[in-house]
Design a protein that fits this description.
With about 70 residues, the chain is an all-alpha fold. It has helices at about 20-25, 40-45, 45-55. The longest helix has 10 residues, at about 45-55.
């Protein structure tokens, strides 16, 4: 697997009170705890619909969702 070389890094909370931190760092994978978010919307890059799901479920976003590549 090719290693990522990001130009910048931002903070991601890895679980409640960092409960996923060690596992994510060790495995190299990021866990997201958005159980209310339909996976199909993410796969089809329907970010406006994802944002609506988050609004309805009470999640607050400070920035618009970036365009996320699918691998």
């Amino acid at each position: 697997m090719e290693k990522n070389k990001p130009a910048e890094v931002k903070y991601i909370k890895l679980g409640q009170c960092g409960e996923w931190e060690a596992e994510c760092i060790e495995s190299g994978f990021i866990k997201f705890g958005y159980h209310e978010t339909p996976h199909e919307l993410c796969l089809s890059e329907k970010w406006d619909e994802v944002r609506e799901v988050w609004k309805i479920s009470g999640m607050v976003m400070k920035e618009p969702l970036p365009k996320m590549p699918i691998r």
